[in-house]
Amino acid sequence: MTSLIKRNASDHAGDGDANLLINEAVGVPGGIGQQARLARAAAYDTFLRGLLPEREGVALLAVGGLGRRQCAPYGDLDLVLLHAGVPGTDELAASVWYPIWDAGLRLDHSVRTVAEALSVAQDDVKVALGLLDARLVTGDRALADALIRTAADHWRRTAVRQLPGLREVTTARWQAHGELAFLLEGDLKEAAGGLRDVGLLRAISAAGITDALRPAVRAAHLRLLDTRDALHQQVGRRVDRLVAQERDGVARLLGLEDSDALMRRVAGDARTVSHALDDAFRAADRLRSGRSRGAAGRPPRRPVARDVVEHDGELVLARTAIGARPDPSLSLRMAAAAAATRLPIARATCEWLAAYCPPLPAPWPAEARAALTTLLGAGPGLVPAWETCDRYGLVDGWLPEWTRLRSLPQHNPVHRYTLDRHLVQTAHEASLHAREVDRPDLLLLGALLHDIGKGLPGDHSTVGVPLAEAVATRIGLPAAEAELIGTLVRLHLLLPDVATRRDLADPVTIASVAEAVGDTGTLDLLHALVRADAAATGPAAWSDWKGRLVAELVARVRTALDTGVLPEPPAPDPALLAGPLPVVHLTGDRVAVAAADRRGLLATVAGCLALHRLEVISADASAVDGRALVECRVQPRYGLPPDPVPLRADLRRAVAGDVSVTQRLRGRALAARGAGAAPRVVWHREAATDAVLLELRAADAAGLLYRVTCALDEAGALVRAARISTLGADVVDAFYLVGGWPDDATRARLEAAVLAAV
């Protein structure tokens, strides 16, 4: 029968279809929820019992998901063939494994005696944890019970010693997969707070170290299992990463309102698991240190800050703080001490603060405001301290707005974190620039609040201004400083947007930014906030080139603010004005070309660069003394720089008018057209000194700049500069068209030409 199953499954093209047929033929039901998982485990048990005849001294054990009866729709089978040294074990194992493989099921298997299994478990903590889930499927029950009992007893006796090594392995896994509570596309199994961490909690509970599987953890575990079931059913195959395109379908299968509701639920469950594991590891640390001191040893109490002491590796309240009327700033001061010392707050202390610490008055006292600044500026200790306080509801007491921001997904692909984690991470990153600004306290608060308007209708930079100013006023900032916080929120995207989309040599660009910013102190705050925001967003949000552009813009605006004089545009490269034509210079990320003055040179250069898989980030075209000059900044499209010899040769031939190169460029560019949402053209009337600005918003594609500049050239427009800003799969390309504001008919004609080229 199994051969027929495999043959029928292979007749279907899709992996998911094949898996579905296999599961149906073996008798494994689909479905979501605990009852469906139990039914799948029962069906697998029935299938496996038919493969191993009853025989003394042999037992088939299930570990992993089948051992726990938590089988996902498309999970693996983890099996151990246990024997007591009986002859013919290899042949017996083959008679079990091959039918499973023939059925198309994934299998992780081993063949061992009790002694061999225990020996491997002693050397490999992962195997030791796996044996805690071992369950007899069929065969010699006494043999199976001997291994299961002995493995559990060995774990209880050695767990405290083995947990430090296990924690190192776990930390490495977390670093590789991130934190499920804050990721937009997290791995439900491997990420911190995921299903594998529940296995660790189960092991710690089995060792008797602490009650790690409280009702909240059990409920979170079941919901995470349901989410994985729905993900498998949605995709039709084994997958653990909850990617964006599958979230809506998974949410529907779980009966949730939308993908945002799904993300919030996953984040909450992952937080519950992560917090429980932190508590469990700390309990193990205390138990281990207590044993090393001996029964008579008592951990000392060391003062850390006012009303805060360290006790056994955790921060607790001083006895005087508990006995007196609590200070409203006490929870903030405890959080600041935890962030500064990078020590955890004891669970009982957090519960006490949540229950008895009175609410902060409005405006806040100076002590509370200072504690918040210390907390936000604490560096690496900020995130864990903030997360602990958020777990117990303390953050909602400080900032009622946090309830809306918590676990809010961000749907821009450049973001790696949920909104709440992004804001805290931005504050952490901002602390690295605190010495560069006159008011580091305002930088830290602005970083925490810069995206407070997200999740509400409208432009979040505008919507967030009154919200941020209200928070600043409530915590006790003077009106002028609260207004400055609002300015940081409103302008936090100004510098990167202008630097990547406008001509920095144009005086109008510098004047407009200087007018918006107002003074150098605000400029410094925005510059620091931009870098912190980008670092907290993800690697796609920043690059060395973008950093240089922003720094150049800041330097030019600073000159204008300090002197009142707009900086002069840079002079053309003298090397392009001398020597026979054409002139081609390749230096790092700069490509400079000089040729006989003619139209279309920018399009020709852009196309040649696209042919060599180079992305143009900025381009400038000008005419000086009868020469057409084009200077471009470029970066490799696929990470590897092109060979400069053929690139230089193609550029020389192309700018000299070689028709064969032009034809090759057109054919390659047409083949490379991208897809995406409908493109859009936006006009800007007074954004340049001697030009109007045509801004194209479209899907990114190789050769896009070449096609658009060709279209503009053929439509009679003269492009003197172009700026390309890539935002994930989209681009915002700005083209400076020489001349005055075109009439309606001309604008319509140019717009149609550009859209046709896209």
Automatic annotation (TrEMBL):
It catalyses: [protein-PII]-uridylyl-L-tyrosine + H2O = [protein-PII]-L-tyrosine + UMP + H(+); [protein-PII]-L-tyrosine + UTP = [protein-PII]-uridylyl-L-tyrosine + diphosphate. The keyword Repeat applies. Residues 419-526 form the HD domain. SUPFAM superfamilies: ACT-like, HD-domain/PDEase-like, Nucleotidyltransferase, Nucleotidyltransferase substrate binding subunit/domain. It comes from the Bacteria. Pfam families: GlnD_UR_UTase (PF08335), HD (PF01966). Residues 590-666, 693-758 form the ACT domain. Gene3D superfamilies: cca-adding enzyme, domain 2. The keyword Magnesium applies. Its cofactor is Mg(2+). GO terms for molecular function: [protein-PII] uridylyltransferase activity. CDD domains: NT_GlnE_GlnD_like (cd05401). InterPro entries: ACT-like_dom_sf (IPR045865), ACT_dom (IPR002912), HD/PDEase_dom (IPR003607), HD_domain (IPR006674), NT_sf (IPR043519), PII_UdlTrfase/GS_AdlTrfase (IPR013546), UTase/UR (IPR010043). Keywords: Hydrolase, Magnesium, Multifunctional enzyme, Nucleotidyltransferase, Repeat, Transferase. Uridylyltransferase (UTase) activity is inhibited by glutamine, while glutamine activates uridylyl-removing (UR) activity. Transmembrane segments: none annotated. Modifies, by uridylylation and deuridylylation, the PII regulatory proteins (GlnB and homologs), in response to the nitrogen status of the cell that GlnD senses through the glutamine level. Under low glutamine levels, catalyzes the conversion of the PII proteins and UTP to PII-UMP and PPi, while under higher glutamine levels, GlnD hydrolyzes PII-UMP to PII and UMP (deuridylylation). Thus, controls uridylylation state and activity of the PII proteins, and plays an important role in the regulation of nitrogen metabolism. Has four distinct domains: an N-terminal nucleotidyltransferase (NT) domain responsible for UTase activity, a central HD domain that encodes UR activity, and two C-terminal ACT domains that seem to have a role in glutamine sensing. HAMAP family: PII_uridylyl_transf. Belongs to the GlnD family. This is Bifunctional uridylyltransferase/uridylyl-removing enzyme. The gene is glnD.
